[in-house]
Amino acid sequence: MNTNQNTRFNKVPNFMMIILGAFLTATAVSLFFLPNKIISGSIVAIATILYYFFKAPPGIIIAAINIILLVVGYKILGKQFIIKTVIGAGLYSVFVQVLSYIPKITSDTFLCVVFGGSLYGLGIALVFISGSTTGGSDIMARALAKQI
Q1: Cα separation of 31 and 16, whole Å?
Q2: Which pLDDT tens digit goes with each residue over 97-126?
Q3: What's the rounded Cα separation, in Å, for the pair 100 and 103?
Q4: Where in the chain are the domains?
Q5: Separation between Cα atoms, residue 40 and residue 29, nearest integer Å
Q6: Cβ-count burial of 10 within 10 angstroms (0-12 exposed, 13-18 middle, 19+ buried)?
Q7: How far is CA 62 from the centre of its chain?
Q8: Contact residues for 16 (Cβ-Cβ < 8 A; gap 6+)
């Protein structure tokens, strides 16, 4: 096997981790945080507020804000990072929107925080380990870290 094929195979686990991480993070938001009005931060907070005040679709709000941040991030972080982040942020937005149609699992705030926080943490860890983000303030944090 030549080195070009070997490099391609090494990228597959990274993309699988991005997909799984985006799904787990979106599951936490759509099934635990959003239906119980729990704000986890940054873009999800804005999406939650707009969802409850204007019935705006949360996945579309997240995607719209991420597009702006991706344009800014591209100039600082480069093409390779942004490609991975487009995949992570795009899948995250789609998963949030699709999963938001599932009915509320529980109204117990403690359970929602524990399960939602655990899923969110695991999902974001998988995405970060793969060298990507799900968008939002993570893009700005990476850009700031690169500047320092």
Answers
A1: 22
A2: 999 999 999 999 999 999 999 999 999 999
A3: 8
A4: 3-147
A5: 8
A6: exposed
A7: 9
A8: none
